[in-house]
Structure formats: structure tokens, C-alpha cells
Amino acid sequence: MDGKQEIIETEIAMGPVHSAAIEPYRVRLFVEDEIVRDAEITVGVNHRGIERIMEGLPVEKANSLTEKVCGICSGVHLWNSVLVAEKGLGVEIPERASYIRIIVGELERIHSHLLYLAHGNEVLGHETFSMRLFYIRETVMELLRLIGGNRVQYGVPIIGGIRPRADLDEMKIQRIGEGIDLIEEKLEAFAERFTSDPMIMSRITGVCPISRKDALRLHVTGPTLRATGVDLDVRREMPCYDPFEFEVITQDGGDVRANLLMRVLEIFESVKIIRQALRDLPEGKVVDRSWEMQDTGIVKSYVEAPRGRLYHSYAIEDGRVRGSIIRTPSMSNIGAMQYACIGHHITDAQLGIVQCDPCFTCTDRAIEIVDMSDNPRR
Amino acid sequence: MGLKSFSRARAVHAMLVYTGGCNGCDIEIVNAVFSPKYDAEQYKIFLTWNPREADVLIVTGPVTKQNEEPLKVIYNAIPEPKAVIAAGACALMGGVYKNIHGDIPSEEICGPVDQVIPVDARVPGCAVRPEDVLAAAVAALPKLLEAD
Amino acid sequence: MDPSYSAVTVLGTLILGLLVSLWLPGIERKFVHARIQQRIGPPLSSPGLMAALKFFYKKTVRPSSPLPGLYNSLPIMGFISALLILLFLIPPMYSIGALASLVAIVGFLKIEEVIYVFMGSLSRSVMSMGMPFPDLARGAKYPDVNRYFLEDLSSMRAFRLIAFGSFPIYLAIFVPAVLSGSIFLKDIVAYQAVHGPVIFTMAGVIGAVVFFIGYMILLNEYPFAILKTKADVIEGPYMEYAARYRAFVYITRGFLMFTLGCLFSVLFLGVPPDILSWGILVNIAVAAVLPVLMAIFSAFAPVFTFKQFYPVTVAASVLGVLALVTAFV
């Protein structure tokens, strides 16, 4: 990438099924004496054609389909898709529904970041810490099951508000409060233990850094971008987050240590937001069904997914979805993954790929325009 | 039971293969092994990533076109006796990706898992619950114990 | 000594060693790793004994390798060389002069390490390059570069480990030789019967610590598991072993743990493994305690890359040299 001609000796390929990857992708590392000189990541193994399936489905059905895009950040896909419909149809949702959606969104951010930390520790070779983080994550999964009914893919937002069964009563509010207190306490103890361990710190400090300039050039988004020092967060642009106060965390250096610490601090911020939401939860109904279906043009919506800026857009025609496009944050981060590995040992390069939080199931999309006879894929 | 069946029941090595799909089931299965709350090792089920060491293959996801050949190659690399568990709605009937427009077949999915390799135990759910995966591993055991 | 007694001693100790070593992986996994990770672990017999038995009953497949016969015989060679180390530690065998000496033990340990290099270069698993994936499609980067398997990477790392990773254990093994003035095991045991165990001297204490570090490097345990880390090489040199041969891999690992424990007991405590005396209990105790200590240390450590491996090995070697110098003085 910087124009120098280096001698590439060998190639090591790691296939779709590999012990360090929780999702199928193919990476070819071009090494010389175990130092990576170049990398090539091939996605497309996970392509299921969701946008094509969504073409022509009724709007509510298409919304609940978008939840199946990813198993880790499922709620935020549904939320964004519902926001597109609401923006297009001009639906106003009650405040209580907005607060509950934010609680679910932040709980999902917590569990996604905990999974990232656990997976990072597993690639480091530290099974003990990985298991401890999975144990902390169980609390969040049980809270999500309490609210939505399922541990993964809970389906809380619908057009006009939230599902009435997902409403919070006294018992649930108290349980959520206790749950997040427990998470905060355990995670603080864990973070102290983690950062005071010299073996781990020597393994992650200075490994696979991404500079601020390169991050902006490679269109990195989300926590990976904030770990290099750039202060961008979509949550500040979303009107539903206005009543809450939270800080946007940034770190310096963009290496593995910055990324891991970044996620831990973001979990604490999410806990703060959930506490504020539980304290100020307004009364009222949770769904507003007084909207009518009409035709809209293409409507776009952005949301801060746990991995970055998520974009959905579609048009509604005769009650059905037309021309939907989903662009997930991991798609922008692929360039950074390839770039971060360069110049490091192979085992560190695996850490470099994991640090950018890959979620390749979100990434495999195809853009298909129904009027043309061949399918251009992007 | 003889020493053969007894030893096969006391140490089961399971390999996980993800063939596309939303990966919700994979995380739940990894949860079943790595999370101290469910801990599959106490039931003598060890997780491995090497087909030559495995007895049981757990497959999740609808088999996408690019994953069909790797799945077959991995299945053939496992020595006998072996059992296959298909976990999740995608692995059982293609999930939401197959035939959602009625009779028009999907072009991206190679069909549920039993069109590609033979399946012995089936776990429903979207995503599967970790308790159900452990129950499926127990249900697939008789095929291993009775094989010669 | 009466020849029939010596035959009973030798065979009995070997069989006892085999039986005890089948329970060592279970102790490591259940009593140490599972307690630290706050879970109930597997039953004691599962990871060692039952796993090996189960693998014996699987159907053999032909490994995907250019020389399958040689590849399959390598774990058996590893098992035999561990057996030979234990054989020459037993007292009736001390009369065979040259082979019951430290130089022979160093040679047998070297065989164990060289085997990894051969295993890695002969293994062509499906999980790395052999996966049917359209890599060299149009637009791929560097389509005409050499493509290596993951196990080749592992064998290159094993090569480096032979060069510098074996210093700690060799230096530690020679500390009792310097103290007792001879490299023959007979003399080392006799010296300790007169002067007390080597571990009670200053040189002995430092030597024991260096032995422990070398023990972890030889067994490829975390944090020194760069040979078979799950992060990039999935299982390293052992990828293509199936059925019987994998059972040998499992048995050899436990047996090597037992043998190295007995070696520690002979060299640093002066108690040889003799089934007809109470010394055998000391040997079994040491052989059980060392893996427990190793497991406690490895549960809290990540995998070291070469950036951290070199300094740790250099520090251990310097300590070893210090022990030798202290032993001279």
C-alpha cells in the first residue's frame, strides 16, 4: 500500500472454518519469515441474498427479516429498518417506547462488546479470562430474555412503537437495575485484573496500530475509529438520544490495547445510559397504531450499531418493500483489517483482524436492481 | 456394555462447522462449551477444531454455495464412527432464506444440511438454546455407541 | 542383584508409569483448570484414559501426507524414546554404563523435539490450503507465490525451538552433574545419598526453577505453546493423526509428564523410581505435583509470540548458567 516493492516469499491461507474465526471468511496472508507483508480477505462466503428476499415483501414481514442478518447485533438491524419505515410514513412514537428501545439497544451493545472481549482473549490464548467474560455475558442474555422472550433475536421494535409484550413492569425494571449493577461491578474487577497483568499487556501494547490519518483514509467507522482518536459517534445525531447524557470515549494509537480498553469503557457508558433510562422512564402507552400505509420514495436511516455506522434504506410501494440496501459497518472496516496486519508476526496479525471487530455475516450483501436482466453485485 | 462403548461414551470430541447463516447459533454453541454456566466438558464433550480428532460434527447455518464443498470435505475427513447434529432452523429447513417466495427456490442456498450430508440429530430453535444442544449431543450418542 | 528381581523392578516400574500417566491429564484438567475457571470439569479419567481408549477403537484413515507410513510412525517413536528415558532411570539399569548417563537422556529428549519438525512438514491437512475455495480467481493478489500449509509454519517454529528453546532444561539437568562430579546417574544418586538432596543447596534451588521452565517449554504448554496455538496453526504438527496414532499422541504426552517428573526426582531429590522400595511414592508425588504447578501457571498466561519468548528463554538460560557457576563454587 505504500509503494515499496517487498519480496513476498510464501502465502498462508486460513480457510472458512478456523479456530480463531467465529464467522466464515478466507484470509490469505503473504509472509516473509513469519512477518506479514500483505493480506487479502475474501468475504462472500456468507452471502444469503437477504436484500433480494426482502424485495416485494410486506413491510412488517421485511422488518422482521432484517433481524436475521446477524446474530450478534440483531436488534439494531430491526431498529434501523423500523426507523426507515417510520421516517417515510411520518409516524411519531410514544416516549416510553423510545426509552425502551434505547434500553434494548444499549443492552445489545453491552453483550456485543463482551463477546468481542471474550473472543479477543481466546485468540490471545487466554481461556480463563475468556470464560470469565462469557460468564458475565450470561447476565445480559438473561435480561434480554426477560424483556424480549429470546436470548438472541428478540424483536422488540415494531412500526409505531414496541411490541406490547415487551413492556417493562416493576419486577422487570428492578431486575434490569440489579443486573446492570452486577455487570458493572464484575467488569470493573475484571478490567483491573486484566490491565495489571504484564504478560497480557506486553502481548497487546503496540500491536497492529492504525494511525488516525490512515483510519480516515480507509473509511473506518465505529469504535475502531474512535480508538484512533477521532471523535465521531452517530448517537449524537440521533434525536431519540437527546434526553440522555453520555460521553463519547476515544483512545489513542488504534492498537489492540486501545481497542480493548475502548470497548470496556463503552460498556460503562452504556450502563450509565440504561440507568438514566430506567430512572426517567415516562408513563404511557407503548405503541401507536394510528398510521396509514402510503407510498414513499427511498428513505435512509443511520444508527450506531455496536460496530459502527449502520445504514438502511428502502422504498415502500403499495405496502411492499422495494430496492432495499443495507450497508453494515464491518464492510467499511475490511480495509483496516487488511492494513493493520502488515508488518507483524502472524499470530499478532490474527489479533489485528479481530481487533477491528469483524462481523462478516452482516457484511455479505449483494445489491440487485430488479429491472435489469443480470445481477450486478457490489 | 463393553469397553468399546464405555470408552466412546466417556469422551466425545465435537467439532463445530458454520456454513453461512447469521451465526447466532454458533455463538450459543460456543456459549455452551465456554461458558461456566453450561460447561459441556462436565458432560464429557470436548470441543475440537480438527476433523481428524472429532466424533461428532455440529453444523449450523443453511449451506451457502461457497460452503458446500468445504462441508463435504470436512465430513469425509472425520474417521468412522461419526454422527452429525444439525442445529438451528437454518440447518433444518433453510430458515428464512429458502423458499420464502413460495416455489421460487433460492439461488444462494444449497439447501438444508441433510441435502448435503446425512444428519443424525436435529435441534430446533432460532437461535438454539445451549441446553438443547447438549441434549442433542446425548441423543446422537447411541449411533456412536452401537457402531462397530 | 538377583536378575529376576531386576526384571520385575524394571517391568513393574514401566507399567506403573504408564498407568499413572493416563490419569495426569485428567488431574490437570479437572482439579486445576476447572477450579480456576469456576466450572465443573470433566471426570478424572476422560481426557487421558478414556480418550486414548476411544481413539483406539476408531477406524484408521490414511493421513493426507506425502509419506504416510513415516508420518504415522512418528508418535510411536516419540513414545519409545520417552519409555527409554524412564527405563534408564530405574536403578537395575545403572549397570549399563554409557546409556544410564545424562548425555543419553539429553539425546532422547532431543529426539522428542526433532520429531515435531518432521511431523509438521509431513502433514497436509485439509483445514489450511487444501480447503476447496476459489482463491486464485481473477483479481487475486499475488497469484503465483508459493503456498504453504499451516503445518509447515508449525514445523519452522519447531526448528527455532530446537535451536534455543532447549537451553533451560539442558542447563538445569547438568547442575547435579557439576555438584556430584560425574555424568552417570549411578554417581549422582550415590552423591545425594551421602550429601543430601541437591535441591537443598543454592544451586539446586535455582536449577529446579530453570528445570520447571524448561519442562513447560518441552511439553509445549501455554504460555510456550506457539507450536500448537489455536490462534493460527489449529493444532500444529498433530493435525493429520486419526484413530490409533492419535491415541499414541495422547499417551505420549501423559507419559512424558511422568518421565520428566521422575527425572526431576532422580536428579534433584536423589530418589530413583524403584517399585520395590518406598521411593516410588516420592516419584509419583513429584510426577503429580509438577503438572499441577504447570497447569496453574498456564491457566493465567496467554500465548507468547517470539517477541516475548526470546527474552524469557534468555533469562532462564542466564539463571541456568548462574546455577552452574554456583555449583562450581
TrEMBL record, chain A:
List ligand-binding residues for Mg(2+): 51, 326
Which parts of the chain span the membrane according to its record? none
Entries under InterPro entries matching the protein: ComplexI_49kDa-like, NADH_Q_OxRdtase_suD, Ni-dep_hyd_lsu, Ni-dep_hyd_lsu_Ni_BS, NiFe-Hase_large
Presence of the UniProt keyword RNA-binding in the record: no
Q: Which cofactor does it need?
A: Ni(2+); Fe cation
GO molecular-function annotation terms?
ferredoxin hydrogenase activity; NAD binding; nickel cation binding; oxidoreductase activity, acting on NAD(P)H; quinone binding
Where is the NADH-quinone oxidoreductase subunit D domain positioned along the sequence?
A: 124-290
What are the binding positions for Ni(2+) in this chain?
70, 73, 359
Q: Write the record's keywords in alphabetical order, separated by commas.
A: Iron, Magnesium, Metal-binding, Nickel, Oxidoreductase
Q: Which PROSITE patterns match?
A: NI_HGENASE_L_1
Q: Pfam families attached here?
A: Complex1_49kDa, NiFeSe_Hases
Q: Which residues bind Fe cation?
A: 73, 362
Listed name of the protein: NADH-quinone oxidoreductase subunit D domain-containing protein
Q: Which organism is it from?
A: Methanothermobacter thermautotrophicus (Methanobacterium thermoformicicum)
